[in-house]
Design a protein that fits this description.
alpha+beta; Arc Repressor Mutant, subunit A; Alpha-Beta Plaits; 4-stranded antiparallel sheet; 9 helices; 47% helix; 22% strand
């Protein structure tokens, strides 16, 4: 889990330094849209919308942009999005799990298949990676002035399975079924996480040579850059040596 936490930190730094922000905003706006379509605009009765807005604030999305996204999604003529997942293999048997939100399924599957085919990978059947990933709640909380020992005791009470401090952020992992419990605990503590989401965490990883690993991560980033893609997960082992190389780029 630690390596993937560090990888998330590296991606966050890169995202803040380049044009990734607009892509991040687009993902969150889609999440807001789906949340509103599913459960309406009342934040108190729609936890998915509440999480989406929390994530939006964590990326410094302007308040009026959030409001516009909610209003647009509540319009009966607004575009409808479908959530779909794809599973496949990169070279060396590295599993890649992709979550998409799209208004055109044919376009999306065509693009995803092309990414794999052009990069020596293969798109698999849904379920082929079900044994590779566990779904976990992942919360990123700025350390700020929080007392580490006291905070850790509080979030353990809220269902935390693991707590890591990375670059002044607490990365909290919960079981999927404890996701809402942790959100409630943070609310009670008056703490707003930078992000709160369900992620797919590998329960086994593939260790390969650094140059090959960097090539696979380029495929992961290529997929992640697709407008229909919300999240990409992989089970490549992120060794300290690999992470050190990535930080140089």
């Amino acid at each position: 889990m630690s390596g993937h936490s560090k990888w998330s930190t590296i991606k966050r730094k890169k995202g803040a330094a380049d044009a990734k922000r607009s892509k991040t905003f687009s993902k969150i706006i889609k999440e807001i849209s789906v949340a509103v379509k599913e459960g309406g605009t009342d934040i108190d009765s729609n936890p998915r919308l509440r999480f989406a807005i929390s994530n939006a604030k964590g990326t410094n999305m302007p308040k009026d942009t959030i409001t516009r996204a909610i209003n647009k999604a509540s319009d009966k003529n607004a575009a409808s999005f479908t959530e779909v997942t794809y599973e496949g293999y990169a070279p060396h048997g590295v599993g890649i799990y992709i979550e998409c939100t799209t208004d055109n399924l044919q376009r999306t599957v065509s693009n995803i298949r092309a990414y794999f085919n052009k990069n020596s990978g293969s798109l698999g059947k849904n379920g082929c990676l079900s044994f590779v990933f566990d779904r976990k709640g992942i919360f990123s909380v700025p350390k700020g002035d929080l007392d580490q020992d006291e905070f850790e005791m509080d979030v353990i009470d809220g269902g935390a399975e693991d707590i890591i401090l990375e670059d002044d952020f607490f990365i909290i992992t919960t079981a999927m079924e404890d996701f809402g419990l942790m959100q409630k605990k943070l609310d009670e503590l008056g703490i707003e996480p930078e992000s709160a989401k369900l992620e797919r965490i590998p329960n086994n990883t593939k260790k390969i040579k650094i140059e090959s690993a960097k090539t696979i991560l380029k495929l992961v980033e290529l997929i992640d850059d697709d407008d229909d893609v919300q999240d990409v997960y992989h089970n490549l082992e992120l060794t300290d040596e690999l992470l050190a190389e990535l930080e140089k780029e």
